[in-house]
Amino acid sequence: MSLPLSRERMLERMLAADPAYDGHFITGVISTGIYCLPSCRARKPKPENVVFHDSPRSARCAGLRPCLRCRPDDFYAGIHAEEARVEGLAALFRSSPAAIRNVAHLASVAGVSTSKLHELFRLHFHLPPAEWLARHRVAAARRLLLTSPRSVADIAFGVGFESLSAFGEQFRRWSGLTPGAYRRLPQEQVLRLTLPAGYPVAAILRDLGRDPQSLTSRVTGDTYTAALRLPSGPLAVRVEFGSGTATCTPVLPPDQSGVDGAEVDWGALHEILLRRLGLTADPGRFEAHVAPHPDLAPLLAGRRGLRLPLVADLFDGLLWAILGQQITFSLVCTLRRRLVRSAGREVGGGLWVPPSPEAVAALDEPALLALGLTRARAAALLNAARQVAGGRLSLDTLAAGTATRAERTLLGLPGIGPWSAQYVMLRALGFQDCLPLGDAALARELQHFFALDSRPDRQQTAALMGRFAPHRSLATLHFWHRFQTRKEMPHDHHSTAPADPGPDLSEPAPR
Predict the structure, then answer these.
(1) Predicted model pTM
(2) Of the options 3.90.1640.10, 1.10.10.60, 2.40.50.100, 3.30.70.1140, the CATH number for the domain spanning 108-183
């Protein structure tokens, strides 16, 4: 093994976590048995425990294994090097939010220009870095407000906000509550979200109630009721929309009546409601992107403020994607209701909690075939459920990570193709620049919107939707809503394709 640098120089650059030296040498840590890139932001080892190698292969031959944080094998493969870089930045930020002062500092730490940083975050997180920082600072603050006795001011500065006014503004923007109101949730037992100006209550309720026979939720007037699966147990919640507010009241199952409200996982409930009501993303950037273009601006007509409601439960989103391949919307709703009755849990009032991965994993193929699933769909669902239940697939990790890794991981699941992967990323994981190619409702509405002679194929769909990047998830929702209001869902096609070539019918909106 021949290394081009002295040990002293490599130690210096390793301690500085200098990304400019990635690819020049590998840091091996004999005390942990791990090898890393020089830029790795994990806690630095003592110099006497460090050995250097010229390649990952050399490190592996010495009995070391790759670091899961900086992912040196990915870097040396040359395929996911930039992905590994932004994942390292995210890990550093989450371990110490106050360590990153602002976007310029983040770019400096990454060893790239601010323009390159914006490019990386758009590709891997589908967000501008400033918004990513603000959202994650607020998320860190929320965790501390419910678990720490520290003052609001101490928490605000501890997660990296430079002023209390900025903290309050960003907290309200991404939480729908003030920091004080959020901290009081366990005592008040009612969650009153302040809705953004122009929040489209009617459109959101229409989306939430697309399956009028749903067992897991229902819409009655201006009230949305849903059964949820929280870490603290199953729970029904009633959301009443008023003037600029959504009042959310837990409705405990009969076997939990009389329990102290403090036992409700308020942090998890709040996060689910933000997702379900479309409050995890701001449509303002999308609308500003579309409005100046005369041929695109009509998409906003009557739909300004439209937001993307995410599925409440990540596994339920994966379930919807698998059930929804190549069948009509009405049929996927029917299959899901059967599965809910078979593997879900009733919580009273005719509401059922969606099936957990463990409950689905406990089923077998004959049981799923009896519900009406095809053999291929049953196999794909069982495989996904068993991977999640067994801890081999973490949907929470995918949602918190990069879009590129999420897509690659989902495509690695048997029976999951490009449409299903993009659908899960769009409706469950919440990435904002997803495109479910092959979705017929989207293609049909593109044909109508752009006055095309024929329905666009995948290549043409990609080109047309490219004009909406990096906001293609919300653009897709706008086209779906246009399609739904323009004509009834079709019910004339049913394919039992073993894999996912992309559905040939309308998008199965998850509940």
Answers:
(1) 0.80
(2) 1.10.10.60
